[in-house]
Design a protein that fits this description.
Largest sheet: 2 strands, antiparallel
Structural class: mainly alpha
Number of strands: 2
Strand content: under 5%
Number of domains: 1
Strand order of the largest sheet: 1-2
Shape: globular
Distance between the termini: 49 Å
Radius of gyration: 21 Å
Order of helices and strands: HHHHEEHHHHHH
Helix content: over 70%
Number of helices: 10
Length: 289
């Protein structure tokens, strides 16, 4: 695709607005092409949103690994002739914060796009069905968890916390392993979670639109629902982001470094993963309260 060929890695890494606009344009173009393909060639709506997610993740795969490599070029691990050891060119936070912002931007874009597509039925009313099924499963789990008596210290908070923490920890480890072995899997999981979030917000907005035509009230209702889950969701999503980034750091390190330099990269990967698990821990505590 011509748009991918003109992608400026250095500019995208240093200018997040450029990155967000560039990726948004790619997502819009690919979505319109997919709609055209289904409508005029297959004669129907885009009923299977996995097609769109796979196209978008394919685009991300052409971009994200380059940004990981750019991060290593900006803050490389170099041999220090005086100290006679491998040292990192930047602080831990400086080396990895930009990649975290990039993952956050991708998730926000996917959430916005799925919200828009589903709310306005751009691809037909059946689009988003898998996400809706996932939302129902989440509701069932939430309902079962709410059955624990809060007054029961032994069986209330700790049971809820252990279930939530164990489940989200498993997901985080999966993000990490997929990112190490194959970045595509981690990007797909991140995209899937963001798409579920976008569909959920669109369903809330649709329900609000049945009560009023005031767009401000509709958006405020959606925003209120979003703020309701924000305290724990922000930690959970951060945990998933960090786990995926930790895997990417390790994968790029294996590709670029060896010996003691690789050990430094492994250390960074472990620290980022642990930071992600701390976020998962905090999110589980908040959600279980």
């Amino acid at each position: 695709m011509v748009l991918l060929e003109v992608f400026n890695v250095k500019k995208a890494y240093n200018n997040k607005i450029y990155f967000a606009l560039y990726v948004a344009i790619l997502m819009i173009v690919s979505a319109l092409l997919l709609k055209y393909l289904f409508l005029y060639i297959y004669g129907g709506d885009v009923t299977h949103n996995y097609f769109l997610l796979l196209v978008w993740v394919g685009i991300f795969m052409a971009i994200i690994p380059k940004l990981f490599i750019e991060a290593e070029e900006v803050c490389p691990i170099n041999w220090h002739p005086i100290q006679k050891k491998w040292v990192e060119g930047c602080t831990f936070i400086e080396r990895h914060k930009d990649i975290l912002f990039i993952f956050v931007i991708l998730s926000i874009l996917i959430t916005i796009f799925f919200f828009t597509i589903c709310y306005f039925n751009v691809f037909g009313s059946n689009f988003g069905a898998p996400q809706k099924q996932e939302i129902e499963k989440i509701k069932e789990i939430a309902t079962s968890l709410s059955g624990y008596a809060k007054s029961d210290i032994g069986g209330g908070f700790w049971d809820k916390f252990s279930i939530i923490f164990a489940q989200n920890t498993k997901i985080s480890i999966l993000f990490f392993l997929l990112s190490v072995l194959e970045m595509f899997g981690a990007l797909f999981l991140l995209s899937w979670n963001a798409s579920v979030f976008g569909v959920w917000l669109s369903e809330i907005a649709k329900q609000a639109s049945q009560q009023t035509n005031n767009i401000i009230l509709i958006l405020s209702t959606s925003a209120t629902s979003f703020l309701g889950i924000l305290p724990h969701a922000i930690f959970e999503f951060s945990g998933f982001f960090l786990a995926a980034i930790a895997g990417g750091i390790l994968a790029i390190g294996i590709h670029l470094y060896k010996d003691n330099a690789l050990l430094l990269q492994i250390k960074d990967s472990i620290l980022v993963l642990l930071a992600g698990l701390v976020c998962i821990l905090i999110g589980a505590i908040i959600e279980a309260l």
